[in-house]
Design goal:
Largest sheet: 5 strands, parallel
Oligomer: single chain
Structural class: alpha/beta
Number of strands: 13
Strand content: 5-15%
Number of helices: 15
Helix content: 25-40%
């Protein structure tokens, strides 16, 4: 195992080193300034974009986004295969220059707990003061207050689309926040936003779109990582960054169906890498703790935590519009994997998010193009990546049928649910209902080892 240190610097003149690197720790310098006082990696562009919308984030929220950039860089540019003993758990120390080092260092234990839970790694977060030249980076606000009523994450997926439609149909004016890291996702976000804009031309809702990616060779002689478990930390940080510019208490909404939010392991082997925690209730609760610790007046909420994806579709406030935009949304975990078969960017139809998507749209009418349009057209091998998720769902549904009430135990496997004990019955119920939707989809689908 190699321990890694990612240390941020504001400009070539910033030569501060918070701590001496140990003999088993590989240090990487992350230069944050593109030119003059403009922050690199899309952050400076986001500041400029928000200024045009009369949104002026706080310095502490800018610190948060810069911290998220460090986390995202480490997560995507340090290989789990080569840099850990178990091909998963990495040890990473991050040193970030911030506007208020004392406040950030006081919050670091909470931040480390969040990140360890999210990615399954061991994080050490440390903070130092920005150089004096960069002590003030956010433009001073003018007198015009922004008109947005909320911030909503906008990923280009079906759930975030429903979240946007529901808000717009009830007269809200959301600022949609997108992170683009690859062309397929970016196109879906653009297409969905443009279709919404055409429908709601009288609304002043808008979007912050930030492209952030790091050079493949950022960490010398180390391969990149494609699991991207830390991406949601960046996504949430972008939303908080924007919301802090409302100059009043804000709500950041993270639209996600309850089955995916809980992400209960489908079988006894489905742990670690296959059990993501992007919108898990424990993770969102820790985010709200972090905002309080940092003095940021906002709250993060998933309004669909107790709804299945099918229930979200059925209750959408403009179903006709949703039906029209569905083909532009992107749910697939790997939409380019069909290229070797001559397919373009499209849904595979058999990965975990594709299966949940297909199940949710069965009664609604699904106009999505899938690489495998009919799951009953073949016998799926559960020992391969193509058939693994199908068999796992079948196993999970059978387990619920054979052991009534076991869902009340299973919902605790991905992480603690101690923040709201009164919600436990609803967590168990949405898990059961979500699996039942997928079980209907898979009725008659055959799985057998080859």
């Amino acid at each position: 195992m190699t321990r890694h240190l990612i240390q941020g610097h504001f400009g070539t003149g910033d030569r501060s080193n918070l701590a001496v690197t140990g003999p088993d720790e590989k240090q990487t310098r992350l230069d944050l300034v593109a030119y003059d006082k403009v922050i690199d990696y899309g952050i400076g562009g986001a500041l400029t974009d928000l200024k045009a919308k009369n949104v002026f984030p706080s310095e502490i929220a800018l610190d948060l986004l810069v911290t998220a950039a460090h986390v995202y860089a480490a997560d995507t540019r340090i290989s789990r295969d080569t840099e850990s003993d178990d091909a998963w758990t990495r040890e990473m120390r991050i040193v970030v220059p911030v506007s208020d080092a004392a406040r950030w260092n006081a919050a670091s234990p909470l931040l480390e707990r969040m990140l360890n839970f999210l990615t399954g790694d061991r994080w050490t977060m440390q903070f130092r003061a920005r150089p004096a030249k960069f002590s003030q980076l956010v433009p001073q606000p003018d007198l015009i207050m922004p008109s947005f009523t909320s911030v909503s994450l906008f990923s280009g997926g079906l759930d975030s689309l429903i979240g946007a439609i529901d808000q717009l149909e009830t007269g809200e004016v959301p600022l949609l926040v997108s992170h683009a890291g690859e062309p397929a996702v970016s196109k879906s976000q653009d297409d969905c936003f443009n279709l919404l804009h055409a429908q709601y031309q009288k609304s002043s809702f808008d979007r912050l779109r930030t492209w952030m990616a790091f050079p493949k060779n950022l960490v010398r002689k180390v391969k990149s990582e494609d699991t991207t478990r830390g991406r949601s930390f960046l996504f949430f940080a972008l939303g908080v960054f924007a919301g802090s510019g409302f100059r009043r208490h804000f709500e950041l909404r993270t639209p996600e169906n309850g089955l995916i939010a809980l992400n209960v392991p489908l079988d006894t082997l489905r742990l670690g890498a296959l059990s993501t925690r992007t919108t898990h209730p424990f993770y969102i609760a820790r985010w709200n703790d972090l905002l309080k610790a940092l003095g940021i007046s906002g709250q993060i909420r998933n309004p669909y935590w107790n709804k299945t994806k099918g229930e979200m579709v059925a209750a959408c406030h403009n179903r006709a519009l949703l039906k029209r935009i569905v083909p532009s949304t992107l749910s697939c975990s790997s939409p380019t994997k069909g290229r070797w078969q001559g397919h373009g960017t499209q849904h595979c139809g058999y990965c975990l998010p594709c299966l949940i998507r297909r199940a949710s749209l069965m009664q609604f009418g699904d106009s999505t193009t899938y690489t495998v349009p009919d799951l009953r057209s073949e016998t799926w091998d559960p020992t391969t990546a193509r058939g693994e998720q199908i068999r796992s769902f079948q196993y999970a549904a059978k387990r619920l049928r054979s052991k009534p009430g076991i869902e009340r135990l299973l919902i605790h496997k991905p992480g603690p649910l101690t923040d709201d004990p009164g919600a436990l019955p609803e967590f168990a119920a949405v898990y059961r209902r979500g699996l039942a939707e997928v079980e209907v989809l898979l009725k008659g689908v055959r799985t057998q080892p080859s």
